Amino acid sequence: MKLIRHGGEGREDPGVILEDGSLIDASGEFLDYDEAFFACGGIESLRSWVEGGCIGGARLDPETRIGAPIARPSKLVCVGKNYADHAKEFGGEVPDEPVLFMKATTACCGPFDDVILPHGCVKLDYEVELALVMGRTASKVSEHDALDYLAGYTVMCDYSERAWQKEHCGQWVKGKSADTFAPMGPCLVTTDEVPNPQSLCLWTKVNGEKRQNGWSGNMMFSVAHLVSYISKFMTLLPGDVIATGTPAGVGMGMTPPRYLSAGDQVELSIEGIGIMRQRVIPEA
């Protein structure tokens, strides 16, 4: 299944995309795609509703706004330097174990929303990432069982202000967490539609120029390993998101660096999930 959330910002309702591409509202049956939905067997209930013909579900205008496919998660955990080519373009050594950092969940937004260039932001960068959405509470789970704890996958762009990330004291989080710096979508694809998360092509274009062109099989730490590893350090709740790292081709890694400016358009895609698109606009 492909889950969406639609409607005005902060007022999104749940929905689904059918196999023929139709957008169907599901708000008559489900409140939202949030922690309670995933924890209480929402995926199975939604599947039954869809297979039963989406009774009571209205067809949506194809032009309706699409929001992030899940309501604001309790945690947004990110993995840094998880592709060897990306680690090398940053001039660093390949890590012995996953590099973790957090991104504020207030950065989450829809897949086609504008990305706001904050006042004082001079090094805005992009990173296409396969994002994992937890379907069950996970604490100290084995790598063998880790994929069973996932609800599905989505696309995320980990926008970063590199000066705030790299040149200011403290952790990376301050360069990662501005509003609109974590667009997700265009849908959440359930795990049954992605039998092997290590076989997906992912790419980014800036103003039509392909900048990133990677393959999830080149992750140094697999999806299963990441879920297991992270669950050793924190309890992952249903609806939590893990961003799994990005391949080479980010603006900071180019010579000279090529950061984003107001007016730029960024397009990102992961095979089998879909395409997102954002326009960079200056903060009012």
Describe the protein in words:
Residues 75-280 form the Fumarylacetoacetase-like C-terminal domain. InterPro entries: Fumarylacetoacetase-like_C, Fumarylacetoacetase_C_sf. It comes from Oceaniferula spumae. Belongs to the FAH family. By secondary structure, this protein is of the alpha+beta class. The protein has two domains: 2-51, no CATH class; 70-282, Alpha-Beta Complex (Fumarylacetoacetate hydrolase, domain 2). It is 13% helix and 31% strand. The chain is built from five helices and 18 strands. The chain has helices at residues 35-39, 42-51, 84-89, 162-167, 223-231; strands at 2-6, 13-17, 23-25, 66-67, 76-80, 99-102, 108-109, 115-117, 124-125, 128-134, 150-157, 160-161, 182-190, 201-206, 209-215, 241-243, 265-270, 274-282. The strands form three sheets. Strands 1, 2, 3, 4, 5, 6, 7, 10, 11, 13 and 16 form an eleven-stranded mixed beta sheet that branches. A hairpin with a 6-residue loop joins strand 1 (2-6) and strand 2 (13-17). The radius of gyration is 18 Å and the shape is globular. The mean pLDDT is 96.
